[in-house]
Model the fold of this input.
Amino acid sequence: MTVLSIIYVVLFYVAIIVLFGGIANKVMLYKRVPAPLKIPVTPAPITRGGVVYRLFYEVVFFNSLFRASKWTWIFGWIFHVSLLLAFFRHLRYVISPDVFFWPLVNNQIVQSFGHYAGFTMLLGLAGLLARRFLVDRVRYISSASDYLMLILIMGIATSGLMIVYVAHTDIIQLKAFIMGLFLADPQNLPSDPILLVHLTMVLFLAVIFPISKLLHAPGLFFAPTRNQVDNPREKRHLSAWGAEIEKKDGRNA
Amino acid sequence: MADYEIPETHEFPIIPSIMEGAMAHSAPFVASEEFQTAMGFPSGAETGQLIDGWKEKFLELLEEKLGKYRSLQVFMDTCVKCGACTDKCHYFIGTADPKNMPVARQDLIRKIYRRYFTFAGKFFGKLGIPGFVGAAELTEEAVREMYSYYHQCSECRRCAVFCPFGIDTAEVTMAARDILSMIGMGQKYSNQIIPKIHKIGNNLGLPEAALADTLEGLEEEIEDETGVKVRLPLDEKGADILLVTPSADFFAEPHVDGLMGYAKVFHAAGVSWTISSLASEAANFGLFIGNYEAMRNISLRIRDEAKRLGVKRIIFGECGHAWRVAYNHLNTLAGPWDFLDQNYPIPQHILEFTKDCLDRDILNIDKSENDHMTLTFHDSCNIARASRIGEEPGSQFTTPREVIKAVCNNFHDMPIETIHDQTFCCGGGGGLLTDDLMELRIKGALPRMEALKNTVAEKGVTHMAAICAICKSQFTKVLPYYGMTMDQIVSVHQLVSSAIILEGQGEEAEESDDAEESA
Ligand code: SF4
Ligand code: SF4
Done:
C-alpha cells in the first residue's frame, strides 16, 4: 500500500462518517423539534397523499422555483438533473457486478448520459454563478461561501470530464480501491493527479454537506409550510409543549 | 395628507435596483415600560434601551425558539441564497431597500444563528471572518437593525409561495419580534393593544355600554333604510351563533357596512346569533408579535364566551389575520370544541355561511342595487396563503368571488400575478397598521395600487372589495396617496347588504321582486 492510498482510505472513511453522521444528526433534530402550529402555505393538500404529491412535484420539477424565476429554475434544474445522471453513472464504481441491478447501471445509456451530464452540469452551474454576479439582488445576498460552493462543484465536474476525455485513469484499480473500502480490505488508489483532485473535492463537499446550506436537500422535506396537511378544523393539532401549557392552567378543559 | 414621497406606478411592474439603506430610518415606536410590563416583557433603563445582559438573553431565547419551532430550525439551515424570493416582497418593490428582500430579512437573524449555533460560523468567527460563511457577531447595532427590518415585514408569506424550500419569512419575523420583546424592544402599537383586549374585550377599548349603543344605532340605521327591524344582539345567552368580528366593524368605514351585511344575512336566514362584549374582537395580535401564549390567551376568551353564552356555533367576520388564527389555531389554542355543534365547521367564516345561504337560494337578491359599481377583489394574504374558506384547496379564492358575483353584475379580476396565492399585501398587515410607519405603509402598497390602477384604466373598475379589517383600513388611508379615493374600498358584505332584499322591505323591494320573477 502506498502512503497516498492510506491517506485516502482514511479520508474516505472520515468523509463518509461525517456526511452520513452529520445528516442523520440533522434529520433527527428536525424530527425532534416540534411544529407547534399549523402553518401550511395554502392552497395546501387536505390529505396525506396530497402532501406526498406536493413534495414530489417540488422535488422533481422545482415547482415553486419555476413560478418564481425562470432563469434560476432552468439553470438550477439542469444542474440537479445532471447531478442525478452523473450519480447513476458513478454507481458502477461502487457496486459489484454480482448485484442484480448491475445491468441497469452498467449500460450504454446510463454511461453516455452520465458523460453528457458533465457538460450540462457545468452549463447549469455557470448560469447560476453568472446570476450571482450579475443580478444585483442576488449579489447582495451572496457571501464568499456561496460562490466557492459553485466553484467547487464546477471543479468536480471539470476534473471528472478531464478524466474521461484528457487523462484517463486506471478505473479497474479505482474500482478495486472503492470495493476495498466496503470490505475493509484497503487497496491501492491510482495516483493520477487529476483523479486525486477530483476525489479530494468530492470528499470536501461531503464533509461540508451537513454544516452548510447543502442541508436544503433533507430540509426540504421538513418545512411545515409544505409538508402539513390542511385540516386544522377537522383534526386538533397540539405539540407536546403546547399540551404542557394547557395542563398548567387547565383552561382548555 | 402628510407629505411622503409616493413611489411611481407603472403599466407593468418594475423590479427596482437595490438602494442600500433606503429604509434604514424606518422603525415603529418601541413600547415604554408601562406597555412592556403589561405584556409581561422586561424593559431597559429607558424606552428603547436594551435590558442588562441582553446578549446572553438573546442567544438563550434564540436557542429556545430553535428547539420549539421546527419551522425556524429548518428555515435557518435550508436557504441556498438562490434569490428566488428577492423580488417578491412588496416592501422591497416599494422601497428598493435590499434588506427588505425576504432572504436578506431572514439573514439578519440567520447570521447570528450561523455565528453562534453552527460549526462553520463558530470556526470562521474565531478566525475573525464570520462573513465568509454568512455569519456575523451579535452587536447592539445588529439588534437595532432587526428591530427596524422585522417591522418592515407584514408577515404576508408571499415569499414563502416562491421559495423552493418553503421558507416563510413571516415565521422568522415572528420569532425575531418575540425575542426582541423579551430584551426590551417590544413594539408599542401591538403591546398597547393586546392588554385592552383582555381588560375591555376589544382592541379599540370600546366598553360594553358603548358597544350596545353602537349596535342599537346600527339597528336603527337598517330600519331607516329598509323599514325592517333587523337585530344586532349583544351578550344574548342561548343564541345559536357567536359572531366574532374585528372591532373596526363596529365603527370604521367601510367595515361597518359589512357588519350590517352580516346582520341582514343572519336575519334573512332566520338564525339566532349574538356578539359577545368580552370577545368583541376577532383580531389576535399575539400572532403578529410571535408569542404563542399571548395568542392563546386571546383565543381562550372566545372559548370562555362561547361557553358562558351557551352558543352552538362560532362564526368569524371579515378579517384576514383573525381568520388565519381562527382557522388554523383556534382548535390548537382554545380547543377541543366538543361542546359545539359538530355539524358545522368550527369555526366558520361568514362567507361560508353566506355562500351556503346563496347556494340554498334562501336570500332574495337584487344585483342591480350594485350596478353603479364595477368591482374587483383583493385577496388578503392571510386568507389566500395561510388559511382556507370553503371545502376545497383554493376555495378561499372562489368563495368570495362567487359571493360578489352573486350580488353584483360587474366584476373583473386584477392581473393573475397579483391575485390568488400571488396576491400582494395591502402594505399594512402584520402589526404595521400604525401611523408611525406611514411611509412604509404607503411604499409597501405600491404593487397592489399599481395593479388596481391598471385594472381601473383597462376594465373600468370603480371599487375594490376586501374581506380584511386591516386591508380596508390601510386602503382607506393609502388610496388617496395614489390618486384614488378612500371610498373605492368596500366590504364584501357591504355589497351583500346592498343587494339583499329583506322580507317586508318597502315598495322598492316588491318592484324588484316582480322584476326578478319576470326575468
Ligand atoms: S412575509 Fe411578506 S412582508 Fe415579510 S418578507 Fe415575505 S413577502 Fe415580505
Ligand atoms: S427563495 Fe428561499 S432559498 Fe432562495 S434565497 Fe429566498 S429564502 Fe433562500
Remarks:
- The first strand of chain B starts at residue 241 and ends at 244.
- Residues 508-519 of chain B have pLDDT under 50 and may be disordered.
- The two ends of chain B are 48 Å apart (CA to CA).
- Chain B touches chain A through 76 residues (CB under 8 Å).
